[in-house]
Design brief:
Order of helices and strands: EHHEEEEHEEH
CATH architecture: Roll
CATH topology: PH-domain like
Distance between the termini: 49 Å
Largest sheet: 4 strands, antiparallel
Strand order of the largest sheet: 1-2-3-4
Radius of gyration: 26 Å
CATH superfamily: Pleckstrin-homology domain (PH domain)/Phosphotyrosine-binding domain (PTB)
Number of helices: 4
Length: about 190
Amino acid sequence: MTEQVPAGEPLPPNPGAAPAFPGVPSREDDIEEELWSGHYSGKAMVGMWVLGGVLTVVIPVLMALFAPDWGGSAWLIVAGVLAVLWLGMLLKYAYERLNARYRLTTQRFFHEAGILRRTTDRIEVIDMDDITFEQGIVERMLGVGTIKISSSDLTHPQLMLPGIDNVSHVAGLMDSARRKERLRRGIHIEAV
């Protein structure tokens, strides 16, 4: 007697059945899970924030020491320049934070860019040839850096992801996903 399955319900697996299409992964292999998602981290701008703070202190001190007889208008100009400096840094941070989003799954990497008009590109993790990251001294102390992805993707053969928090872990996740997907599809890692 055959078992009746209600409409809309998935069929139960048949453990003894041969695959419908030999060489094509089964549905269980096709499950795509999110491994990581992120965006630009403000930690990447710490050097710029520190420089802005130093300039905010040093410029007025130097003015007071070397040009004490300058009038109030000179102080207003310096205050205006420092305000523009800080506004520029805040705008850069807002742009970097809002402009790009990233998502890594077991099979694909998604890169979304744009604020008013958003473009989403997908790179198959199997097409990633090399994943490296770089960090400066301050970035190493904060655990942030830039990931570089070299791939056979036509739209982004070289993709730079600046300001990634916990960069070594994220680069490791990407590399691990790439290796697992290549093994799953039976592609030798050195052959691609």
